[in-house]
């Protein structure tokens, strides 16, 4: 009675193979349905297959910081640029260093690739600077009326960076008036941190109005040079815009142009840097029906922001504005009408796109270095398409050779192997298609190579199991017990083999960059799917096939014919004969 119990225990897993098959079929149907419902029926393609833009950024030396271009700062810049571009939803943007001072940015062709290129081209440091004066973008004529920005006071920060019409500037109902002495005092206060202005330094930071009282004394040379630079700045000239803030340190005042080119600014020293911003998001205010940008600051940045907003909220326009300066351009200049601390809200005439752009700049715009756009190259998909076609042909040839080998050597068992390969292919394709919109995965040439290599890994698992079954039949067992007894030994071998492959893929993914990571990711994914397919599909199907007459009777074309395998006589029968012949001798 003990022997039958042991036999049933060894084959207990063969009773309900349908459960495993139902589970994997449900998974395949769910993934396929999700793929069609999401509208992403094909995997996203990388830059080498879909084409795109390759940008080379060259790091520029920082004033007073000759050692700023180093490995640490370059790696930090790579990380920020990558997060910044990917924050726009661009798939598989590749950002990596080249040499000591260059960064290569590959942006695949897609919906947001042009927008990403614009933001990659403005990869300088991000600062919050107080606005001292703002006027139109053209050079200011000597002796003209001193302009000031108009805007209504709000509790939240509201963008108000437009130049004031000279006709409305003189209207006291439209624009707060300020004498030249008052404006000069405000400007001089903002030129240097912790410096108390002297009576002789009360000259206007902007061109003085002819109607305003004349200021006494002469400004210091630095102030006079800055005023002259502001007066002469022409923001309608692209070359002048690009050079407006060159060589200026964060603790120094500067001049800058608005991002739209219709305003120029005289700005005080940087009070808050982009590194002080913890997070920024574009949100839609349902009550007011407008788009806005909410900001969260770090603990250190919150204290800085509270100090500057307290100071600005007591000023008249435009001295109650702070400018968000990126790469020497003012991307936004909100007014401040109350003291703000840990968080702030920028509202105004935002569209969804402009709100998202500003939030992305605030989140990822602070870089340790400034960069210039060295070269821009458009990559076509023609070469990649040819290589992909060649790779697919090679994969098809390899798959055909595997099928021919399986049919010639394993005969009927080749059907189980082909069904398993089909199941693995469906799972791999649907998961790759869904991973595109989910995590930005894009299929490139190395990833295709990884998928082709996976065919051999999957076929190897089938061969291990089939050979274990054939070994059991050679030992004299029938097919059904042979299938169950072979599984534990084959399972251990398959798991060890797949673990080694997955470990190699994981290490390769962690220590490499760029396209090689696509190969490692695909290899690791297909290795995991191999385990799933062997356990939930190949083994249950083999159990069901063993119950059929074609396989169970050892048909010559089943691949499990005992005669062709050189099976030995049944083990139990030989043991019983030996026992009967030995017993009389012992007696």
From TrEMBL:
Q: Which residues cross the membrane?
A: 20-39, 390-408, 415-439, 445-466, 494-513, 519-537
Region: Disordered; residue ranges are: 133-221, 561-587
Spans of biased composition, class Polar residues?
Answer: 171-185
Keyword check for tRNA-binding, yes or no: no
Where the record annotates domain SSD, the positions are 413-544
Asked whether the UniProt record includes Oxidoreductase among its keywords, one would answer no
Q: Where in the cell is it found?
A: Cell membrane
- Give the record's keywords alphabetically: Cell membrane, Membrane, Protein transport, Translocation, Transmembrane, Transmembrane helix, Transport
Per the record, the domain of life is: Bacteria
Q: Which InterPro entries does the UniProt record give?
A: SecD (IPR005791), SecD/SecF_arch_bac (IPR022813), SecD/SecF_CS (IPR022646), SecD_1st (IPR048631), SecD_SecF_C (IPR048634), SecD_SecF_C_bact (IPR055344), SecDF_P1_head (IPR054384), SSD (IPR000731)
Composition skew (Low complexity), residue ranges: 136-163, 197-216
Q: How does the entry describe its membrane topology?
A: Multi-pass membrane protein
Summary of the function given for this chain in its UniProt record: Part of the Sec protein translocase complex. Interacts with the SecYEG preprotein conducting channel. SecDF uses the proton motive force (PMF) to complete protein translocation after the ATP-dependent function of SecA.
Q: Extract the HAMAP family matched here.
A: SecD_B
Family of this protein: Belongs to the SecD/SecF family. SecD subfamily.
State whether it acts alone or in a complex, and with which partners, per the record: Forms a complex with SecF. Part of the essential Sec protein translocation apparatus which comprises SecA, SecYEG and auxiliary proteins SecDF. Other proteins may also be involved.
Q: Give the protein's recorded name.
A: Protein translocase subunit SecD
What organism is this sequence from? Streptomyces mutomycini
């Amino acid at each position: 009675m003990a022997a039958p119990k042991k036999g049933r225990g060894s084959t207990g897993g063969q009773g309900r193979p349908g459960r495993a098959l139902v589970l994997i079929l449900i998974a395949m149907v769910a993934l396929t349905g999700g793929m069609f419902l999401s509208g992403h029926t094909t995997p996203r393609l990388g830059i080498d297959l879909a084409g795109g833009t390759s940008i080379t950024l060259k790091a520029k030396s920082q004033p007073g910081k000759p050692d700023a271009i180093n490995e640490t700062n370059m790696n930090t810049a790579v990380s920020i640029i990558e997060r910044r571009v990917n924050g726009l939803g661009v798939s598989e943007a590749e950002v990596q260093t080249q040499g000591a001072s260059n960064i290569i940015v590959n942006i695949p062709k897609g919906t947001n690739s042009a927008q990403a290129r614009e933001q990659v081209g403005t990869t300088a440091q991000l600062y919050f600077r107080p606005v001292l004066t703002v006027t139109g973008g053209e050079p200011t004529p000597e002796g003209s009326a001193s302009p000031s920005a108009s805007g209504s006071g709000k509790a939240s920060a509201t963008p108000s960076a437009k130049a004031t019409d000279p006709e409305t500037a003189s209207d006291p109902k439209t624009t707060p008036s300020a004498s030249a002495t008052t404006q000069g005092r405000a400007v001089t206060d903002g030129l240097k941190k912790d410096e108390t202005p002297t009576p002789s330094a009360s000259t206007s930071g902007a061109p003085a109005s002819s109607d305003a009282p004349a200021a006494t004394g002469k400004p210091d040379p630095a102030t006079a040079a800055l005023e002259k630079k502001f007066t002469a700045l022409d923001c309608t000239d692209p070359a002048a815009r690009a050079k407006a803030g060159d060589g200026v340190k964060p603790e120094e005042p500067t001049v800058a142009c608005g991002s739209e080119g219709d305003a120029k600014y005289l700005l005080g020293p940087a009070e808050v840097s982009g590194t002080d911003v913890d997070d920024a998001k574009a949100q839609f205010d349902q009550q007011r029906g407008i788009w806005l940008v909410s900001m969260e600051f770090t603990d250190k940045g919150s204290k800085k922001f509270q100090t500057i907003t307290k100071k600005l909220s007591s000023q008249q326009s435009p001295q109650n504005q702070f400018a968000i300066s990126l790469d020497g351009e003012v991307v936004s200049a909100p007014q401040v009408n109350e003291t703000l601390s840990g968080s702030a809200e920028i509202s105004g005439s935002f569209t969804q796109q402009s709100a998202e752009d500003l939030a992305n700049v605030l989140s990822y715009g602070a870089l340790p270095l400034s960069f210039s756009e060295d070269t821009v190259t458009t990559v076509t998909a023609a070469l990649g398409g040819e290589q992909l076609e060649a790779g697919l042909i090679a994969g098809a040839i390899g798959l055909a050779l595997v099928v021919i080998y399986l049919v010639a050597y394993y005969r009927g068992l080749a059907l189980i192997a082909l069904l398993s390969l089909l199941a693995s292919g469906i799972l791999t394709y649907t998961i790759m298609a869904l991973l595109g919109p989910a995590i930005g995965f894009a299929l490139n040439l190395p990833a295709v190579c990884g998928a082709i290599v996976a065919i051999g890994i999957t076929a190897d698992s089938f061969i291990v199991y089939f050979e274990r079954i054939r070994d059991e039949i050679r030992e004299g067992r029938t097919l059904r017990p042979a299938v169950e007894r072979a599984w534990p030994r084959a399972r251990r071998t398959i798991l060890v083999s797949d673990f080694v492959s997955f470990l190699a893929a994981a290490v390769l993914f962690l220590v490499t960059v760029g396209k090689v990571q696509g190969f490692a990711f695909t290899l690791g994914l297909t290795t995991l799917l191999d385990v799933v397919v062997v356990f939930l599909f190949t083994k249950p199907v083999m159990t069901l096939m063993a119950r059929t007459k074609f396989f169970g009777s050892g048909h010559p074309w089943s691949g499990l014919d005992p005669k062709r395998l050189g099976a030995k006589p049944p083990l139990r029968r030989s043991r019983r004969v030996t026992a009967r012949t030995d017993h009389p001798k012992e007696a």
